Amino acid sequence: RNEYSGALSGLTRVRRFQQDDAHIFCRPGQVMSEVTSFLKMMDEVYTIFGLDYTMALSTRPEGYLGELELWNKAEAALEEALNGTGREWVMNPGDGAFYGPKIDITVYDALRRKFQCATVQLDFQLPIRFDLTYATESGSERPVIVHRAVLGSIERMYAILTEHYAGKWPLWLSPRQVMVVPISEASYAYAQQVRKELRGCHFHVDADVTDRKMQKKVREAQLAQYNYILVVGEQEKVSRTGGQGGRPRQRCGGQGRVEWGAVLLLVSSCALFCL
């Protein structure tokens, strides 16, 4: 979409973007259950990310379309769904879309800047314009469209999470999960073997086989924010172990020598504990 001059800003506001949109066609009586399910799913996702958010109910604007009774029922259903979350929310009178009320979700990044990401909106007008109906016990009725997005703009969510984690991505999201550092040239082959085995377990793994000192490789891997740094040498090759480290002040499990089978288990399990 064409933005106003000067409005484009990094990944937070771009000219072309992707959204995780969904349009749910349901009966009017199913609106509350669908919205409740969405709010639960959104809360689970944002809790995993560690993001803080607020919610607001945007109600009927002056230039609304459709029947007043339908609007009142829809707003009551959204209000009941919001109350069911147990979280605080605010009323935003008159800020709904002309085609239906909505719940606006505002996300805050690490700098406490506000972003509109997730949303759930009701649409009464498209079913009318497309003349959509479904069969009921007594004849036919017109459905309601529930338009929802959890992440919203994928590009904007990338920017928020990058800021939120300050580049230190949790293991399950990190593009740089493990760096294998050989002690000397004699261990290059074993480092590549370790890399291959971990990649076989679907981890993002690199091996630094450049002609530099081990300490330099470890330091650069730390600066590159690798979650794990495995230092291997001839002794590790024979005993199938590895020296395990990680980011400064964030060494999950500490440093030391661990059995090779435990390396795989440790890296896998730390996806839960290194967030």
3D structure, described in words:
With 275 residues, this protein is an alpha+beta fold. It has eight helices and 13 strands. The chain has helices spanning 31-49, 68-84, 125-129, 154-165, 188-200, 214-223, 234-239, 260-273, and strands spanning 19-26, 52-58, 89-92, 102-108, 114-123, 134-136, 139-141, 144-153, 178-182, 205-207, 228-232, 241-246, 256-259. The strands form three sheets. It has a six-stranded mixed beta sheet. The chain has a five-stranded mixed beta sheet with strand order 10-9-11-12-13, with helices on both faces. Strand 2, helix 2 and strand 3 (89-92) form a beta-alpha-beta unit. Helix 1 packs parallel to helix 2. Residues 248-260 and 268-275 have low confidence and may be disordered.
